[in-house]
Write the structure tokens for this entry.
Amino acid sequence: MGFNRVLTAVVFIPLFYLLVKYLPPLFFFLFVMAGILIGLYEFYRFHYGPVFSPSIRLGLILGSLVAIGFYRRDLIDGFALMIAMVLIILLFHLFFSGNLASSLVDSSVVLFGLAYVGWFLGHLILIRDFQDGGRAVFFLFLVTWAGDTGAYYVGTSVGRHKLSPIVSPNKTIEGAVGGAVASAIAALLARAWFFPVLNRQECLVLGVLLGILGQLGDLAESMFKRGAGIKDSGSIVPAHGGLLDRVDSLIFAAPVFYYYLVLIKGYGQAILV
């Protein structure tokens, strides 16, 4: 399993570097959009199971609109899109639901998935659109990846105290601390290497914050999986499970990092899509 994880990283990292650094932003948008749709499908399977139900299809169509709304903000108004999605979901379950007893839960699952996966991860598109967006994307991925890696190795080596035994029995407080420290170190290294717009104090604070948010995202997805009675969200990523298992640490971290760059660093105007 360890070798397969390393092999997956060896293949993915160079391709991701080429995608972000050398290809036009359109390709990164398509990459994120594909990730949103796959993540949405995996999330909806927690509730609907393996059947490709009409509600899943509806969620994927609306998820595409969410991603396009982030990329083409000049064409799609975010507030209007949000209202339209709520109405579409309600009307869909009003006229096409085969089981009115589950209409409230089904409607809530579709809408929550759009917010939890689509809206949160869509901020990656906004980050890439900054003038120095490619480096900002590398910073975010490096910090969250370091947090995941640090939490895993510290937790398996010296972890003794359970962090959330009901949700994820293998995660420990020691691992959580190790992950936050690893994220802070990665932020400092990124500053020295390619992202000097942050000072050392910001790197420490932001690194710890993003590391904590990444672990909260991991726990949140573990909660959904445990509630659904499944181990992995899917099997699309060799040795890692589903795509949602790999991007769960970005779900909360991406929007926080975006609004930090906008509100604190003055990268641009905050956009609510």
